[in-house]
Amino acid sequence: MISAFFIFNQKGEVLISRLFRQDLKRSISDVFRIQVISNPDVRSPIITLGSTSFFHVRINNVYVVGVTKCNASAALVFEFLYRFITISRSYFTKLDEESVKNNFVLIYELLDEIIDFGFPQNSEIDTLKMYITTESIKSEMAVREDSSKITIQATGATSWRRSDVKYRKNEAFVDVIETVNLLMSKEGAVLRADVDGQILMRAYLSGTPECKFGLNDKLVLQKRGNEASKSDGAVELDDCQFHQCVRLGKFDSDRSISFIPPDGEFELMRYRSTSNINLPFRLQTHVTEPSRSKVEYTIHLKANFDPKLNANNVVLRIPTPLNTTGVQAKVGVGKAKYVPGENVIIWKIPRLQGAQECTLTAEADLATTTHRQAWSRPPIQLDFSVVMFTASGLLVRFLKVFEKSGYQSVKWVRYLSKANGSYQIRF
Amino acid sequence: MAMAPPRKGENYELRQQLNSEYRDKRADAIKRVIANHTIGKDCSGLFPDVVKNMQTDDLEQKKLVYLYLMNYAKTQPELVILAVNTFVKDTADPNPLVRALAIRTMSVLRAEKILDYLASPLSRCLKDENPYVRKTAALCVAKVFDLKPELCVEYGFVETLRDLIGDGNPMVVANAVAALADIYEASQSLPATPPASPGRSSPPPSSRPSSDLFIIDGPTLTKLLVALNECSEWGRIAILNTLARYKAVDEKESEHICERVMPQFQHVNAAVVLGAVKVIMIHMRSVTREDLLKSLTRKMAPPLVTLISSPPEVQWVALRNINLLLQKRPDILANEMRVFFCKYNDPPYVKVEKLDIMVRLASEKNVDTLLGELKEYASEVDVDFVRKAVRAVGQVAIKIDEAAERCVGVLMELIETRVSYVVQEAVIVIKDIFRKYPHSYEGIIPTLCANLEELDEPEAKASLIWIIGEYAEKIENADELLGTFLETFKEESYPVQLQTLTAIVKLFLKKPDESQAIVQRVLQAATKDCDSADVRDRAYIYWRLLSSDPAAAKSVVLANRPPISLPQTTVAPAILEELITEVSSLASVYHKPAATFIGKGRLGAEDMQRRAMQPEEEMSREKALATVVAGQQAENLLDFDADDEVPSTSSSSQTLSMVGSGSNSGLTSKAISNVAKSSNPLDELMDLFSTAAMTTPTSQPIAPKSTVSGIQGLQDDHDDTFSGLSGLSSPPPQINGSTNSTQQQSQQQQQQQSSGGAQDDLLGLF
């Protein structure tokens, strides 16, 4: 149980304070300010002082803090804090000091609804938006809606959906988004390659539609280490997790994904795959230190996917030694520039076609230091997004929609593979 | 009003606005009041003006007024009564949102007067036709119980809560369960029967609800399992917590629970996943069906691994729990080491935890990959992490015999980097490897000795000195190397002094001809110039050993030591069992029982130790006895002690003279006699006792920590896997005389040691 909730700015000023239980005083916020915000040595996200535990998440320039005095579920507190962040983002796009100050009334109202006496309650964004509104997101029916209907939905077995949704055109959009994690050693061996996938759905369907969803997956929970049957084009998923609308019991018994979707956008499932990952980019690095004052880079990038596809916003961050004074870089495609503040060469390629190759050559000049420090060579980081490509090979087989009235619906599927700091190559 | 409020300032302005005839102006003013409250300004003076705005159709404004009331009701208990009417009216409002809001707010106002009006609206709301109101009211019971338990008992609210478990709406069920759990916890700290106060004529109503109410029976279990699949994620957590408390009647029921909870592994909320893991770990204990057990462990692994892609804080909680689960069931993640590889940009707290888990998962199959990773980490910039990575290499070497050679290879490569902290850590680690595999990797000793100058940390120095002493016969210039340390003896920290002393004595026993002079110098330095009681006492013990019976000295100092091993668990089995039932909670994150960091009667470290020891006591006693037997066989150290003990009496002056004569009687050896004659032994001992008191605190960290006991405690007191006879590393009270200071010290040590029982036994035997 969470006893209190605070939002602090970087100076330790309280922006939001809400006590849920009587076992704490407001002044506990001072303790957090002194012990955590003004203490640079804090390394743990949970601090227990006396018998009071502080859980904090730092985001932009604010601290979002949950406080408890009991042996609370740590996972729950952090999940709640992150849920709060998600909800705030959907209400006012960004959670930072300014937006908190501008929306404090709304935040109190939200807190009142999503947590009661320290127990998280309803945190479904769509439902919340039905009765907690700001001027900016006043959805057409929300305000005047009969509140008893709202409350039924907020507590009902399908708390995520109203029964009277109507659309002239019934459409469903499915986005498969994969984040590729890669760790490659100096020698080019793949130390770790896996995919964290996310299937987002936007459902604009009338009534109470019953959906069935199929992928070209086969869950490998059963047979580990049995590599025999692989050629049937099925993707092996190590694990998957579903939105609460999916009937977990049914999935457990016959592996079928069936659900009544919430109205609008939601995350249908998350999955993880570790086998047969198609790495969209290959990197060959040749970095030498010919003298004490120079490092030479030759970095060869190859797009390893179908030539019909394109990668967007490819960004390479190539670390340089700390005592670098300047860098001369030559690139065939895109732009490369040295950023002294971060000690990296940033090579940006706005658009790269499949199978295309390009090279960067660069020379970093180093300041001479009396005492030569070993350079730890942090990994090169590659960010990108490739549309219509899944690194795991996952495909949506079907999405069937059944509704009483028997309408036809249109479904769209998009795929995207991306990396954001998770694609790392050592050199 | 008795005191006229000031006619200016912000509050005056606000007051005027709150009483404005325009609606939006009033609404605005309320917002400003809340804003002022948030930044810590006292707004209690505006109470009557704010309360006037309570009666409104604007739900947003109502909420803000309620928020104000929650914060200030306590400061204005007489005025709260103004609000009661509106509250009671609102709890009967046709709009369920208003009803819920009113009951929710009313039950947290800390004012006696409100509570009296609360009972009837609350019982109405608990039976409201709208589930939203019911689920809100369910939690209100817990709130009221927190304020006034008697009220709940009097009106039977707890019974009503219990009935709500059978409600058709899963959210209501979840909140009822959560409220019951909360009340149960709170009622544990209440007195069972309130003491009859002499002042009152009638006994006060019992504030503790009947404990039957919290027992979950078969039908309730069915209802919970049904609700589990239907309610919101937070509700699932509450239900899972209750299922964790449930005691299954037979194995079949446990199986049933496991099967029904298993699908929750697929939930997207990490707290639900960990909650499910907890329930299954608990109910698994009574499951014996092989295939089910297998499928449970198999299905548990993927969701745990998936938690590693959560945001760092959640990840950390997950990692701490995985660490715990691995201690209980080392097999669950056997094939998954790669996911624990540290990313360069992981926060430090995540990295350190991953490192620990990787060592746990290390096996012959994956050791090469792991060593490659560890080597990589050792080149990073975060000093703390680099050291832990180097240490991990050593742990792997000790854990996997076959990989030891490769680990030593990696360590040698790391030493070549000549990065000071890497080298120092590597030396410490290598010492442990030598202790596990004596006489295996002597070839690397010259390289180590070449790095002598690089070492500036006590632990690294002490480790290298230990190695030199241990292999003194193989190192040609051992006396030279040790001599360099002897020169700076006085400036060194105590652990280094202790090791220097021991190493030189070892050298002397191995090569008596060449090192007479040096041993004499070190004994003299340690007994004369050193202000640590430990060092001094140890020097005296060696001195007497060497002078009375060199053969005995040899068998004591150079005895074979049992090899060390990597402990499989970091917490005692009993505590591990307890923590497993607390998975995902703070206790599981800290790896400490909840009672140690929260609660009214916080348990001290001592209690915890006692609990940790209980199941081990038997074992450690046996171990202690075995060690003593081994000691007797090794040589007659015991006789030696007993001889000196005989004349010891309780009078301290006598004891002093005895010890003095004891050291005089030991002056048979020519080499030593000069030294002793030159100083008055009595003065020296007095000096010793006075400094002993002074140095007590500093000697604490030297005391060994864990449980393998052995006579070798004599030489290895900074090694963490040995302990046992560490009473000897600071001299036992019998030898040293009965000064209070030393006794206190050894008592403190006894308290500190987890193997206190063993030590008592040993001392008793002496």
UniProtKB/TrEMBL annotation, chain A:
Task: Please indicate if the UniProt record lists Transferase as a keyword.
Answer: no
The principal localisation class reads membrane
| Pfam families referenced in this protein's UniProt entry, alphabetically | Adap_comp_sub (PF00928)
Keywords carried by this UniProt record: Cell membrane, Coated pit, Endocytosis, Membrane, Protein transport, Transport
The segment(s) forming the MHD domain are 169-426
What membrane topology term does the record carry?
Answer: Peripheral membrane protein
Under Gene3D superfamilies, the record lists: 3.30.450.60, Mu homology domain, subdomain B (2.60.40.1170)
InterPro entries, A to Z: Adaptor_comp_med_subunit, AP2_Mu_C_sf, AP2_Mu_N, Clathrin_mu, Clathrin_mu_CS, Longin-like_dom_sf, MHD, Mu2_C
Q: Where is this chain's protein located in or outside the cell?
A: Cell membrane; Membrane, Coated pit
Q: Which family, according to the similarity comment?
A: Belongs to the adaptor complexes medium subunit family.
**Which protein, by its recorded name, is this?**
MHD domain-containing protein
UniProtKB/TrEMBL annotation, chain B:
Give the UniProt subcellular location, in the record's own words.
Endomembrane system
What are the Low complexity biased-composition ranges? 648-662, 743-755
Pro residues biased stretches: 192-207
Q: Which InterPro entries does the UniProt record give?
A: AP_beta, AP_complex_bsu_1_2_4, ARM-like, ARM-type_fold, Clathrin/coatomer_adapt-like_N
State the function annotated in the UniProt record: Adaptins are components of the adaptor complexes which link clathrin to receptors in coated vesicles. Clathrin-associated protein complexes are believed to interact with the cytoplasmic tails of membrane proteins, leading to their selection and concentration.
Tell me the protein family, please.
Belongs to the adaptor complexes large subunit family.
What Pfam families does the record point to?
A: Adaptin_N
Q: Where is the composition biased (Polar residues)?
A: 696-712
Which parts of the sequence belong to the Clathrin/coatomer adaptor adaptin-like N-terminal domain? 8-549
Listed A to Z, the keywords are: Membrane, Protein transport, Transport
Q: Where is this region: Disordered?
A: 190-209, 641-666, 696-766
Q: SUPFAM superfamilies, alphabetically?
A: ARM repeat
Protein name per UniProt: AP complex subunit beta
